[in-house]
User: Fold this.
Amino acid sequence: MTSTSVLWFRRDLRLADHPALVAAAGAGAVVPLFVLDPALLGPAGAARTAFLYRCLRALDGSMGGRLVVRAGDPVEVVPQVALEADAATVFVSADFGPYGRRRDTEVGRALKSAGRRLTGIGSPYAVDPGQIRKADGTPFRVFTPFARAWRAHGWAPPAPAPAAVPWVGGLASEPVPDEPAVTATLPPAGAAAALARLEAFLAGPVDDYAQRRDRPDDDATTRLSPYLKFGCVHPRQVLARLGRTEAHEKLRSELAWREFYADVLWHQPESAREALQPAMAAMEVDTGPAADERFRAWTEGRTGFPFVDAGMRQLLGEAWVHNRVRMVVASFLVKDLHIDWARGARWFLRNLVDGDTASNSHGWQWVAGTGTDPAPYFRIFNPVTQGKEHDPEGDYVRRWVPELAGVAGGAVHEPWKLPGGPPAGYPGRIVDHAAERAEALRRYGALKSEG
Ligand SMILES: Cc1cc2nc3c(=O)[nH]c(=O)nc-3n(C[C@H](O)[C@H](O)[C@H](O)COP(=O)(O)OP(=O)(O)OC[C@H]3O[C@@H](n4cnc5c(N)ncnc54)[C@H](O)[C@@H]3O)c2cc1C
Assistant:
């Protein structure tokens, strides 16, 4: 006997390699649902919201306009749609983030009280968070052994798409809302765009990935992160295409970082906002008007350090920042400006098109030395040498900092050394790196001696 199910889309905005869709279609007719949840839309800035809406339109198009869109609290909306569809089961790809877990528990409870059920199949990860453990059953705290165990564990191949999904139309739906005004240039949205990007990358750029991935002046990385964030592509679809070359190994390892951070967050949900290492929470940070002014200069790309300013302006211009530059600008905020990492993480999360709590909070904590890295103490990025090393000709800086467009070559990283000083309009340095580095080490030292 077949029955109607609801497939509630969340971070899985695609039809290919979708185990929950396979299960729903196998059971009978399927009502596709997306809930515009104010709790999730609130912290997302205009860029991520606009990208989400574009992905929803693409998803709707791929199912002949049948996507049911409703706004509200999922605890009320999902049972209501299940009632209207007379669906016994609501299928989802399981969510492992702190908010998603709480929400799904409550939605599951509400459905159960109406004689229905929430069934989670699959997740946004190749291996579900919580699955990979040490021999003694405890979670990994360090990346390399996690990645080794993750590979040994392995993952299923991509799920074949169901031949024809019996979508049910006819339920009331709101239109996908109009986009908020967005100034950033966003990548094309949706699953087809994600696969096109993957194919283009695998057709050539991947060969240089191991050597060039740290070069923000190149377009040398996949730029799949916004698609992975919303599940326009599943990591399995990427992993299934990787062999044993050095470049493919490196890309697999980067995907393992994403899985590692989701695993860490699953075990310690409070680490979304709080230091993973409790002792580090006592770190002395700067607050008050002077710190606020420095924070503002950082957000606007006006620190006087060209590599940092280019990164922060790329964040505003593309809602995406190259990984190397994310590390450098984060280190600058925490160790040169002595501002709490969580404040920087919130700015990132609001502005990134790929903003993801697990990767963002733990990316920040890795840099701040409060997280998973066992030896963070001495890692204070020098914003000038990082620029010279990873953007040797200065192309990246000139692309994002027009005031420096007339400065040739790597000299762009030290505009204060130019014969006439920095070009008009470009700010002087807001801090002295050597002095602030010493200050950061002093603060860490004080913390250690207290501990
Ligand atoms: C301070 C900071 C904040 C970050 N915030 C986010 C975030 O909100 N969302 C996000 O997706 N990534 C975040 N990252 C990780 C990383 O910078 C981005 O995933 C990467 O730059 C995306 O570009 P790409 O797709 O071209 O990466 P590629 O180099 O092509 O890597 C392929 C995929 O592997 C994963 N990946 C790569 N590096 C990392 C990493 N260090 N940690 C976790 N996953 C990784 C991503 O899913 C990425 O799309 C953050 C890193 C730092 C240092």
